Amino acid sequence: MTPEARLTEAGQSRTVPRKVKLLIFSQALNNFTVGFVLIYLTAYLLEVGSLNALQAGTILGVETVVVIVAGIPMGVLSDRTGRRKFLILGNSFVPVTLIIFSLTSDFAWLLFGGILLGAAEASALGSWNAIIADQTRLANRDPAFSLSFIVSNVFLSGGFALPLAIPALQSALGLSPLAIHSDVLLVLAIASFSVPVFVWLLLRNYVETKRIEAKGESKRELRLLLKFSGLNGIIGLGAGLIIPLLGSWFLYKFAVPDTYSGPFLALSNITIAFAAVASPRLSKRYGLFNSILMTAGSSTFFMFSMALVPNVFLAGGVYLVRASLMNMAAPLLDSYLMGIVHPSQRGLGSAISAIVWRLPNSVTTFIGGYILWLGLTTGNHFLYDLPWLLASGLYVLGIGLLYLNFRHVKPTG
């Protein structure tokens, strides 16, 4: 019996190495923090008038530009000089960013905080997937990436839900909502200083995969990576129009503040996380690539439906289904990518993939923010639906081209 055949549905997560599990859980606090920061920037600060949707989209867009500019150089350096140090560096930027967000709501400083957050992501993105892939094999890589996806989304959900506690904290401490939000960010900043220390302790004996020059077969794999990333970037182009601005969309279209949109996004991410439990099972039954097409393709119908929903409750239900289906594909995409890239180039491969996704995503996040802001200022409610319609068309195009170009390409390592 092959190693893959021994991965039963009930025991797949037990095949993930213990050190990989600990590494995945080491990021839980930062995942929680990012969830709260996103709802803080895209909903709460809009609610109190410190930002508008265009400014929120600009902060998120600039953060992505930093990832794009710095990601590939850091990915190359991580392959050549060591992935561990870049993961630790990325984790070290997070608490500094939180301190800035806790001290001011001035747009210029928030923009600078977005730049630092982009530097944190750029430092880590070239190393995270590569380190997981280096410590797994084809037999247990899908469960490892699924566990990573589940943990990140569960704790991201906790951050989204944190606004639920704000009224109680305000009542107990006698502080204003803005002061409570700021204090929460400061507490999270202090706690986040422990994360890079834990990662250093956990990976102090990690053996790096040495970088080799790409020749022959590895050059072919690099070409596949660039093509795969480019086509996946079309999907990112669509996602950027509305997904990062979901809190703003709920506020503008249905007048839902962050104390409600935050918990909804939390529920959404928990649903997404547990939906990903099925990802390795689908991969085992239908094949890795076929499972990506099935989940991503079927989610597009529900994305289109978001433009047609008449009330917030139906919108919430449709979005939960869409998000669950689309994000079941996310860990499988990571696993597939790491299987078609040479092990010595996984840091670069991870960086290129993330950047090619984020480049169009950052552009359309700005465009999506502008469309929502235009809808608010002109009173044209169709503009609230337009980002969903445009995103659906781009998803259909991207998924179709992935099928045409990669249906015969199998992971090898």
In words, what does this structure look like?
The longest helix has 33 residues, at 346-378. With 413 residues, the protein is an all-alpha fold. The protein is 79% helix and 0% strand. It contains 17 helices and no strands. Mean pLDDT is 81; it is low at 1-11. The protein has one domain (14-406): MFS general substrate transporter like domains (Growth Hormone, Chain: A, Up-down Bundle), CATH 1.20.1250. The two termini are 19 Å apart.
* Helix and strand run: HHHHHHHHHHHHHHHHH
Q: From the coordinates shown, what is the CATH architecture? A: Up-down Bundle
Number of domains: 1
Percent range of helical residues: over 70%
Low-pLDDT stretches = 1-11
In DSSP terms (H or I, runs of 4 or more residues), the helix count works out at: 17
Q: Which fold name is given in CATH as the topology? A: Growth Hormone, Chain: A
Pairing-aware structural class of the strands and helices?
mainly alpha
CATH class: Mainly Alpha
- Kindly state the number of beta strands: 0
Q: How does the major sheet shape up?
A: none
What gap, in angstroms, lies between the N and C termini?
19 Å
Report the portion of residues in β strands. Answer: under 5%
Main features:
mainly alpha; disordered N terminus; 413 residues; Growth Hormone, Chain: A; 0% strand
